[in-house]
Design brief:
Blueprint (H helix, E strand, L loop, with lengths): L47 H42 L20 H12 L11 H26 L2 H5 L2 H45 L3 H22 L12 H22 L2 H6 L4 H27 L5 H4 L2 H6 L4 H16 L3
Protein name: DUF3829 domain-containing protein
Keywords: Signal
Organism: Paenibacillus tianmuensis
């Protein structure tokens, strides 16, 4: 097989909202994604308006973070399930059945399905997210349809059913999967685009709040991720992947890389200030994990410059397998993977 390229979802791992974005959240302990709001009080009495406002903000954070978790499952594990399937069997009308066929298909767990059902349910909850809720309503049936077929396929390949029926059901399932994934990608990209816009808006609010409160570690940590996404978007906008990395316009890339480098220097400087870490009430261990991943992002960005300067193409062998592409130095895919991990660690910061 030649180099494999599957339609990519147009979103990265999304950023959760943390408690310091809203003034009421500090009392509600909503600094983790999709945590249940607490501290609700009965209506009436002195201070009820303040509590109602805090609870309203908490509900907004909870809903947004539920959508973040949906976004992140789609662009990570679910995307991996689809990519692994199509890497093995292709995405044409008929499955590609190689000699000495063997396939360990990735699963969609019962826990995944429960989480998705919960996340889809937020489309009916307040407050309304007018740009996102309708896309979730459209996404739910097509994603669920695809999950049903993928789950059936997983059971079929796990039990080696193709040995019993000479791949008859494999062909039947493949036709259904190919048809269902087209509907899924159309709905998924609408949702992810809406989340990208909403995320950018919330990110600017967070950056402004961090500056106003002199939370320079949180500010520099978030700005680093925002500018790393801008760097990745630059490569995507140029249509550059591992397969054509040497076509990268280095002038445009370096302009955004230099901003990222300055961000990294600021972040590194601030995290060494113990008094600031204490002031911002950051957990040292989760902060360290995030900074370590931020270093990996910076290194992955630097490796791209090294590869292009050396005029070193990615081998055809590596291009055949997503795992190799995502782990080879100097590829946009490795940069994207390290960025996703860094964002996940940012979301887990306390």
């Amino acid at each position: 097989m030649g180099a494999y390229v599957l339609k990519k979802l147009n979103s990265f791992i999304a950023l959760a909202l943390v408690c310091s974005m809203f003034t009421g959240c500090s009392n509600l302990k909503l600094n983790r994604p999709a945590e249940e709001p607490s501290g609700a009080t009965a209506s009436g009495g002195a201070g009820s308006n303040k509590n109602d406002g805090a609870n309203s903000e908490a509900m907004e954070v909870e809903k947004y973070n539920a959508y973040v978790n949906l976004n992140n499952y789609m662009t990570s594990r679910f995307d991996q399930v689809l990519n692994d399937y199509f890497e093995k069997l292709g995405d044409g009308e008929q499955p590609i059945i190689e000699k000495n066929f063997s396939f360990t298909m990735l699963s969609i767990t019962a826990s995944n399905k429960t989480d998705l059902n919960n996340q889809f349910g937020f489309a009916e909850k307040t407050p309304a997210f007018s740009a996102v809720d309708p896309t979730v309503v459209k996404l739910k049936p097509v994603m669920n349809d695809l999950i049903v077929i993928l789950s059936e396929a997983h059971d079929y390949y796990e039990t080696k059913g193709y040995v019993d029926d000479n791949f008859a059901k494999s062909k039947e399932l493949h036709t259904k999967i190919v048809k269902a994934k087209d509907a899924y990608y159309a709905a998924a990209n609408e949702f992810l685009k809406a989340m990208t816009s909403l995320g950018a808006e919330n990110r600017q609010k967070s950056l402004k709040k961090y500056q106003e409160q002199d939370e320079q570690i949180r500010y520099s940590a978030l700005k680093f991720l925002a500018d790393a996404e801008a760097l990745s978007a630059e490569m995507e906008g140029q249509g550059v992947t591992a397969a054509n990395i040497l076509d990268l316009n280095m002038d445009k890339y370096k302009a955004k890389y230099d901003v990222l480098l300055e961000d990294f220097k600021n972040l590194s400087q601030h995290v060494q200030d113990d008094s600031r870490v204490k002031k911002e009430e950051l957990d040292i261990h989760s902060l360290k994990r995030y900074v370590d991943e931020a270093k990996n992002v910076k290194v992955a960005a630097s490796e791209i410059i090294e590869r292009v300067n050396k005029k070193e193409k990615v081998s055809d062998f590596d291009l055949k397998n997503r795992f190799f592409v995502e782990n080879r130095e100097g590829t946009p895919e490795k940069f994207s993977k390290t960025l996703s991990t860094a964002i996940d660690n940012y979301n887990r910061m306390k």
